[in-house]
Amino acid sequence: MTAFRSSIPFNVLFINSYDSFSYNVVRLLEQQSHKGGYGEVRVTTIHNDTFTHVSQLKKYLPHFDCLVLGPGPGSPVNGVEDVGLLASLFEDDDLSQIPILGICLGFQAMCLSQGAQVNELMTVKHGQVYDIELTIESELFKGYPSQYKSTRYHSLHVEPSLGLIPLAHTNDENGQLLMAIQVVGKPWFGVQYHPESCCSELGWLLVSNFLQLAQRHNECSGRCDYKGSIYDVHVYDELDKTIDKTPIYEHQVDLPTQDISIREHNVCKSPLLTLYLCDAIHDFKFVMASSSQDPHRGRWSIICLPNENSDVLTHYTSLNKTTIYKWRDRNVSWKDVNASLQYGFVHPCVFSEDKGQFWQTIGQFVSSRLMSSRPDLPFVGGLVGTLGYEMGDVVPSIQSLNPDAKLVYIENSIVIDHFSGKMYTISLSDDFPVHIMQIISQLSINDPRLEWPSELPPMKFDIEVSSDASYQHAFNACQDYMRRGDSYEICLTRQTQVTPHGPLAPWRLFQTLVTRNPAPFSSYFDFQDLIDLPKDRTLCLLSTSPERFLKWDHDTCELRPIKGTVKKTDEVDLQTATRILKTPKEFGENLMILDLIRNDLYELLPDVRVKDFMSVEEYQTVYQLVSVVQAQNLSDSIYSGLDVLKHSLPPGSMTGAPKKITVQLLHEIEQRKRRGIYSGVTGYLSLNNRADWSVNIRCLYSYNGGYHWLCGAGGAITVLSQGESELAELNTKLDSALQCFTNSE
Ligand SMILES: C=C(O[C@@H]1C=C(C(=O)O)C=C[C@H]1O)C(=O)O
Ligand SMILES: NC(=O)CC[C@H](N)C(=O)O
Questions:
Q1: What contacts 489, CB < 8 A, 6 or more positions away?
Q2: What distance in Å separates the CA atoms of residue 694 and residue 716, rounded to the nearest whole number?
Q3: Which residues form the Chorismate-utilising enzyme C-terminal domain (predicted)?
Q4: 229 falls in which pLDDT band (50, 70, 90)?
Q5: What is the DSSP letter of 318?
Q6: Quick one: which of 649, 658, 598 has its CA closest to 627?
Q7: Which residues have C-beta atoms less than 6 Å from ligand 2?
Q8: Residue 441 burial (CB < 10 Å; 0-12/13-18/19+)?
């Protein structure tokens, strides 16, 4: 009996209130497996609206050793609309015998149910690390020092009340605040702070102590007898399925090796080489160049050469349609494709599918071609292109004929390693274009001369910017949401439209953009993918992004969120910027996104680490605060990098936290405008199972071949932000790209 019982995991039911930190809690619980007498910890996660009322959950409760109620947006005072199941959870009599740990929102809901008041804080705390002091000795804090540091994310707080035993507190401008409690006479505990944050000390010990308390309670009360009698794995499977986490494609353990034709050339290490080569190649090309470098980024540049074998995959989220045709296929006419897209006529290249199905289409395309060859190269061929903001799972669809995703299959490419001075001409089908090889042989690849103009040709531009008053209005709306506890950080953005008065070739504009604002992710994409594609339906993207979103190889995934920006001026040097970027405002901004990114990775992968904590990086016009988060052992997972990409779009640094609710709020605040390409990602899925995607910021893009250029800019708003300085920051970022137009004439 004992052996049988110990092989049954300690089952935790986690109620996820749609926070961007939920999976940090789930993994922290799992990581405590075998650290106490409770054995292996198995967490089953449901959402707080998976069931509308506790009566629907009741039959599952005996199958769990304890409940953990996660943090989240909203207020328990607003009842079911804000907190779903948590509003009725505590009404159930059986619950008084079930051990519960409430975290932040979960804690507040628990305390409210005991008659305590939940009020708004005078001074809200988001992403702020405080000293927490133990009020009395308790089992929950066994092994703790009397004071320790933890991260707080809250707008609301619980007033002390008769039914609550205070266990820990903190002090700030609001006075003394309750930070942990036990409910009198019940195995219910709660913490106001976030033990799962990467800046919280001893969070693991709190969780482990709680699990031990729960185990002991269940033994004494006889609750855990269920393990012998009613244990039924199907219950957990049934609940697990309420949150869809099916992998996009099945993981292949042994990828085939494939012959790739690769020629290696010795070249100079200058990043100018890529641009110099591109100038000489007049064929269609997509470029992902490093025009600036540092020890961590900017090592590689890739020039992609589409040909007649290049499939072009385009997705339109609001039309629920995908088109697939070959690059500039003579037999495919845009007119017919367009008629099918708009009026539903049958066309062999147009497919009805939603964005979830489109991810599967990409998955199928790539997984059937994956290979183990040349893992040393970042790219050997594969899909390259851009995925817009609306490709994100949580983003509402807005009617549009503009594509949301465009990926092109590339067989022939030039890959340059700027660190070692090597260049690789690569062909998956052994037909690297002879004339391009000839061009290369005639160029002085060891001494590239690049004279790119920092000015555009003399020309007038109309620049349409929305008013500062409307920004201020939106800023105030953000502040209201954050004060009420609906969001902790909101990345507020706006877009500017530039109309050149004459013809301006995208490549010419790219030259000036890159010269003015060199960046590690300089991308050029001009998708003239059908011969008769009219200019006013041609998607173009010119990017000088400083921000990596996600890269992966067969075993590691890395995200690199930027959050925290200071303008470079004569007075602000690296040292001053570092001081400013380490103030509570910037620190909190970065920490929130760092914890969110950990969550995005933890949702799918168990082994996530912060590799670089808030380093200051210098760019042409700004200093930025950057963190690096990695997930290891991807090869042991059922998930692929593509799953991580799908699940973590749109980038947290472009939304704020919690991501789901904040994206919904932004939809209203930004007046239901599509963000489109801006706030999406650009990069590649290489067939050797490597990928690299940058965030679409500091870029110019056009849906009509350059008649109008759009440029988005924004920044994270927190409760510590001030409208005027946020607007100034937005304008600094806008200027990184927009300066091309404003300084010339
Ligand atoms: C929103 C933008 O940038 C994002 C916001 C940042 C910030 O708030 O500090 C920094 C980098 C980006 O993640 C933009 O450049 O338009
Ligand atoms: N992190 C949280 O769970 C926050 C809870 C609640 N929305 C507040 O702002 O106080």
A1: 126, 127, 482, 588, 589, 592, 593, 656, 657, 662, 716, 717, 718
A2: 18
A3: 469-733
A4: low
A5: T
A6: 598
A7: 71-75, 104-105, 153-156, 485
A8: exposed
**10-16 and 41-47 strand pairing:** parallel
Extract the runs of DSSP E, i.e. beta strands, from 333-373.
Answer: 350-352
Closest CA to 66 of 213, 181, 166, 205: 213
For the chain, domain boundaries: 2-240, 261-742
Kindly provide the ipTM of the predicted complex, given to two decimals: 0.98
Alpha helices in 517-583 (DSSP H): 574-581
* Cα–Cα distance for residue pair 457/476, rounded to 1 Å: 40
> Can you tell me which residue has the tokens 């040393």?
376
Report the DSSP beta bridge partners of residue 119: 157
The yes-or-no verdict on residue 581 having pLDDT over 50 is yes
pLDDT, mean of residues 668-689: 97
Instruction: Match 């470079």 to its residue by tokens.
Output: 568
pLDDT digits (tens, 9 = 90+) for 62-77: 999 999 999 999 999 9
Interior/surface letters 146-159, b for 16+ CB within 10 angstroms, e for the rest: eebebbbbbbbbbe
Q: Which is nearest to 546 in space by CA: 563, 529, 530? A: 563
pLDDT of residue 743: 59
pLDDT score for 549:
97
Rg (CA), the chain: 27
Query: Could you give the angle at which helices 468-484 and 659-669 cross, rounded to 10 degrees?
Result: 150
Whole-number Å distance between alpha carbons of 221 and 137: 23
Asked if residues 75 and 111 have their Cβ atoms less than 8 Å apart, the reply is no
Q: Which residues line ligand 1 (CB under 6 A)?
A: 491, 493, 547, 562-565, 624, 653-654, 695, 697-698, 712-716, 733
Task: Give first-to-last CA distance, the chain, whole Å.
Answer: 85
Closest atom of ligand 2 to CA, residue 488 = 9
**DSSP per position, 438-507:** HHHHHS-TTS------SSPPS--EEEE---HHHHHHHHHHHHHHHHHTS-SEEEEEEEEEEEESS---HH
pLDDT in tens, 294-310: 777 789 999 999 999 99
The class that CATH gives domain 261-742 is: alpha beta
Distance (angstroms) between ligand 1 centre and the Cα of 698 equals 9
- C-alpha–C-alpha distance, residues 246 and 243, integer Å: 9
**How much distance in Å is there from the Cα of 46 to the middle of ligand 2?**
19
Show which residues are catalytic: 104, 194, 196
pLDDT confidence band for 619 (50 / 70 / 90): confident
Instruction: Please enumerate in sequence order all residues whose Cβ is within 8 A of that of 76, keeping only pairs 6 or more positions apart, or say none.
Output: 82, 83, 86, 87, 105, 108, 109, 112, 118
CA torsion 476-478-481-482 (nearest 10°) is -110
The predicted pLDDT at position 291 comes to: 81
Among 465, 554, 535, 547, CA closest to 716: 547
The total number of residues shown for the chain amounts to 745
pLDDT tier, 226 (very low <50, low <70, confident <90, very high otherwise): low
| Mean pLDDT of the 666-672 span | 97
The Cα–Cα gap between 43 and 86 comes to 18
Does the pTM surpass 0.80? The reply is yes
Say yes or no: domain 2-240 is CATH 3.40.50.880: yes
Ligand 1 centroid from CA 262, angstroms: 38
Quote the pLDDT of residue 446: 78
DSSP string, 219-241: HHHTGGGHHHHT--HHHHHHHHT
Tens-place pLDDT, residues 734-744: 999 999 998 54
**Contact assessment for residue 109 and residue 154, using Cβ atoms and an 8 Å cutoff:** no
pLDDT, tens only, 496-527? 999 999 999 999 999 999 999 999 999 999 99
Q: Are 610 and 629 in contact (CB under 8 A)?
A: yes
